[in-house]
Specification:
alpha/beta, Rossmann fold, 2 domains, four-stranded parallel β-sheet, 14 strands, 33% helix, globular
Length: 354
Amino acid sequence: MRILATTLLAILIAPTTIAQQAKPIVYVLSTGGTIAGSGSSATDLSNYKPGAILGEQLVKAVPQISQIADVRVEQIVNVRSSDLTIGNWLTLAKRINTILKETPAVAGFVVTSGTNTLEETSYFLHLTVRSDRPVVLVGAMRPATAISADGPLNLLNAVKTAIAPESRGKGGLIVLNDEINAARDTMKTNTLRVETFRAPELGILGYVDEDRVSYYRSTTRRHTLNSEFDVTNLTTLPKVTVLYSYIEPDTTLIEAAIKSGAKGIVFAGTGNGTLSIFEANVVKEINAMPAASRPALVRSSRVGNGRVTPTAEFDAMNIVPSDTLTPQKARILLMLALTRTTDLKELRRIFSEY
């Protein structure tokens, strides 16, 4: 009789205990942005204050999250994403890497961010988090106070993605509008629409639906666990400037970038990363500078799609092609690359592998 009672008690207790133990740990690191924005009315979709709501409040506003995960929230900063700094990036990457050491059971991470520079933050973490655990960037195109605010469902879907076993090893992820995109390949493509994040040619990775997280492809370039970049002891990154190409460009901006201490320059060139004759003439002058004071040069494109490929003309000018990286992401990779090397051959290797 005592054995039967003990067995029945164990059966009654076990499901609750197992359910409690089974909840995966997710850290939500909040940085502000529209997802944490507050307007004066429910129809105020443009003139609102980004970063007005704390991460704890965002999570509590979606009670369904606590049903699927043990969420631990930390407020890193609370600003619009246009005001984030490289220091904020380093803080995020270091904190995530520290949590991975202190809490090895952590299933994944969600970083809430404004959408303006979300793709850049995601790519930086894609290169500097040394783990296969998913790091999911999430934001919203409408403030939390708006009619049909998209933030709550985006946040729930981001947590679902972070705890999904299928998300491991896929690098930095971006989740908005029920879609999962790759940090490397994705950019903001619309100023206001909720379907703004796109990888126009390479496509989305998958979907987050009510029943499951579904993947259909993954990025093949090096990232996270296989990345060679270590920011543990870094307090800043080498200065890299992006310069936009157009008809008869102002080449004094190239000279100004060098004088201001730029260690690298990314050209947002026309077409296949093409530089005008005016820019090319200045580059020839740069190549005549002593190697120690010469900035590293990278060619990207203002087009937004397609590869920037090697060409005899620009290879001879010691300019590294960026492959499919947008100018802003080429800048991030160059900054990190310059923490390791200034060797042209090595820079070419890095841009071909990442």
